[in-house]
Amino acid sequence: MNNRKLKIIFMGTPEFAVPSLKELHNNNYDVVLVVTQPDRPKGRGRKLISPPVKETAISLGYEVIQPVSIKTDDFKEIVQKLKPDIFVVAAYGHILTKKILEMPEIGSINIHASLLPEYRGSAPIQWAIINREKETGVTTMFMNEGLDTGDILLSAKLEIAPDDTSATLHDRLAKLGAHLLIKTIKAIEAEELKPIPQDHKKATYAPLLKKNDGHINWKKSAEDIEAFIRGITPWPGAFTFYGDKRLKIFAARPILTDITAPPGTVIKCFTDELRIATGKGALSILKIQGESGKQLSIRDFLRGHSIAPGTILN
Fold it and tell me: Which residues of the chain form CATH 3.10.25.10?
């Protein structure tokens, strides 16, 4: 490949994509355009909030566009005029058609937060923790029309810590993905990469999580529930019901002990503890939030809220 700088169009929206955009900037790559989703209303005031990628791109001096759809003739004209070599796509949030994927001279590269073909889909970070995986990682691939089915370029592994939440693991994977992206582009420039087709028989999936997916199933083991809580913290967040009141659970500790009480039953213990019977073992709640109020340690919460032994959470 000649020494001409590659022209890159970057497509991304949330925090996960920010380190990759910064690394492209730090390595002096020619990012000719940043494409991100439109500003969205958030909070009680429904104020329009810019995506993290937009804020970062503007601070770095890049041109930004926020098309409602990338299937329009206007978007295609913009891309054709820029004549990009590569699309870099990191959690953009829109499906790219075959025609769009084929617009760059070299191809479209995606950064995915799993070791493909495992955990294809929208929530690979959360599901890796929920399923109690010991490690995960990031993969760069040439995109095709399928859901994370493109040929693999490079991958990098990362150990999942026993106390990782989806938030902490997200941040480490975002940084790892940024470094892997630069390594991938350099290897493409040096013509050192041989894309490897995925083994589709080994594929697993990480479907999008919805708000109600945070409801705790007390029939599962204490270890599974503890991993579930970490996997969906901070979103959609784990919760259970005390009567008609929703309790949000942010952290817990499994206790491997024989329990005869039905799953979901509050077990008698020290006054500053809250232990819940599960399908196997018990779960000691460490951080909790009531329907009104803020996140509290269980000790502080129980000072103002009495939950009697024998109570069944559901």
Answer: 211-304
Q: Where in the sequence of the chain do the CATH 3.40.50.170 domains occur?
A: 7-202
DSSP state of 37: P
The class (CATH top level) of 7-202 is: alpha beta
pLDDT at 1 over 70: no
What CA–CA distances, in Å, run from 309 to 267, 269, 302, 314? 5, 8, 13, 14
* Strand 152-159 to 40-42 pairing: unpaired
Task: Report the C-alpha gap between 220 and 227 in whole angstroms.
Answer: 11
For residue 306, pLDDT over 90 is answered with no
| pLDDT at 2 exceeding the cut of 70 | no
Read off the pLDDT of residues 17-51 as tens digits, 9 standing for 90 and up: 999 999 999 999 999 999 999 999 987 788 999 99
Q: The domain 211-304: what is its CATH number?
A: 3.10.25.10
- 126 φ/ψ sector (left φ>0, alpha ψ -120 to 50, else beta): alpha
Q: Cα dihedral angle (285, 242, 206, 169), rounded to 10 degrees?
A: -30
